[in-house]
Design brief:
Elements (H helix, E strand, L loop, with lengths): L2 H19 L3 E2 L1 E4 L8 H15 L7 E6 L6 E7 L5 H18 L6 E4 L3 E6 L13 E5 L6 H20 L6 E8 L7 E8 L5 H20 E4 L2 E4 L3 E4 L3 E6 L27 E5 L9 E2 L2 H21 L13 H6 L7 H7 L8 E5 L2 E7 L5 E7 L4 H14 L10 E7 L2 E7 L6 H5 L10 H21 L3 E3 L8 E3 L5 E3 L6 E3 L5 E3 L12 H6 L1 E3 H17 L15 H10 L16 H14 L10 H9 L18 H6 L2 H7 L9 E2 L3
Antiparallel strand pairs: 1-15, 2-5, 3-4, 4-6, 5-6, 7-12, 7-14, 8-9, 9-13, 10-11, 12-13, 16-17, 16-27, 17-18, 18-20, 19-20, 21-24, 22-23, 25-26
Length: 667
Amino acid sequence: MELSKLLFLLFQLIILVIQTSAQFEFLYNKCGTNFSTPSTYQTNLRNVLNSISSNTQITYGYYNFTAGHKPNKVDATVLCRADISVDACQLCASFSAATIQTVCLNTKQAFGYSENCTIYYTDTSAFHVLADRPFWALRYEENATDIPNFNSSLTKLMTALQNNASLGNSELKFATGKLNFSSNSNQTLYGLVQCSPDLSRLDCVKCVQNITLSVFPAYFVTFTDASLFMAKGGRVVSPSCFLRYELYPFYGNVTYVAEPPGQPPASPASNRNITSVEAGNSSKSHKIIVIVVPIVGSLVLIIIIASICILLRKKKPRKVSGKFNKEEMDTLDSLQFTVGAIKVATENFADENKLGEGGFGTVYKGKLPDGQEIAVKRFERNAVLGELQFKNEILTLAKLHHRNLVRLIGFCLEEDEMLLIYEFVINKSLDNFLFDPMEHAPMQWQTRYNIIYGVAKGLLYLHEDSRLRIIHRDLKAPNVLLDADFIPKIADFGMAKLFKMDQTQALTSKIVGTHGYMPPEYLIQGQVSLKSDVFSFGVLVLEIVSGQSVNSFHINKHSENLLAFTWKAWQEGKPWSVVDPALSPASSDEILRCIHIGLLCVQNNMADRPNMSSVSLMLSSFSTTLKVPSQPAFFTLNVSSQCDTSDQSNSRSGSMNEVSVTKLHPR
């Protein structure tokens, strides 16, 4: 960074601090019970507050971070007023996170409110939870005139604002408005309502109503000589929502022709004639004033030291910066997410959001600000093969759109993080239903058949119908995800290989995949083709029919592998012995046809295997005549001997099983 630009940014920061410092004071704070020190809770609290202080990616005014798990879990939130600038919000969030630690020393819960934002942390859940306690109220000591019209207008305005705010999205629930209330229309009532954006619509309305019913009668209404009076202005603040009303335009981002005559200009609360009260205590609240000069001096010193370091040291390229060239990054620009956004979505990769782990990292469930549920694959750092899979999966899936393929929503390449963001598929992967009968009721045949047909359509799209010709190379039950309607979605394209449209096969110098699903020509010679996926599909079909994994197959003490046993049963006219006993004979014709198709797909000679368009036709049209299958691949070999026959591939690639099986929970 050029020195002149750095100094300019430094100057801007100093001005911003000075401008904002007058508004930064904890007008109210409430501290909870203490925790022992040092402790795991203290470490987790420090981590979430430091995350808030250092985060510059959030631009919509709501910070939410989580660290640890019960009983040491910490949830922390900061909610900025929606009518302030992003810079002012980030500064208020940073100052609040730094200051609350000294104001509420070693406490498990704390709530603080300054002019521009609120901060709240707790050892219970704070996300998607209505928290209207503790609350703080601030009112004008002067009362309004024209009481009947004023009270009626205030009720009408606040009802409209709470409803409008509740209709916001998962980034912002905020509403402002004004209403003329005097008989001659020369007085205007201005109002503001804001809810924490993670609240539901109903909880937003409920929060505003709760604090209105609790606070207004107790603190804003007075009786004198049997007459009722209402404070001419005030505000109520809680962790989940706040509201304010005044007789002058106090909120930003609104253009007015002129201020209502006789009304005071907008100013910090500390300069007005006000009374501050908190729940359960009518005395004035103690204010915690932040000493601005040391903070500004510290910031200046830190920036100067950092600037010198930046100017003197040779800048090292980030390790992840070389994953894409400029053309690729330009193409994928719309799919990029920030680390901050994904941390918010996954509650900082909380353990309770973990869906599963695989050879390249961990998958977490998350929710985007618009409410969309996502699955985030977080790659292990410094995993070379993981970097290759990361790039390959993005460049492949970004160009594919099909009902039977898992959808890539985006990716993140920042702060040494490699994150892939997919649509969330609620049911577990296919292997959990097929091979774990203790956990699930047996899948009915119609469901299994629909899965077979859906996977076939997905492969057909990859091979022939998409703009690219793609070989998946790792089709297996764990890589078939099931949505709420058990529609299959092929996933995990990290080992996919891109072909030219007129290309049908190629040689590869590295054998990757999973034993039992790889065809002999690929396993032994490194020859990959469209028929490689067809072979894997055939194995998958036989697994779905039998309810058993190709790599742990056993029936009646037989030691043959799945392919060998199926071929023997077919030859002896006993194909039903292959079928999962949980399946009803009522669908025997369809089941036996699928066994036939499965055997055709696992033929030893790849030329004898059908292509996916033929397979799709066989599955959809029972009038299509099927060829007679011959002996499948690996008929005379058991699983262990498959590896022993691949000396050539061992010399070519080293480890055979470089793609590990990923066991996933719902995503």
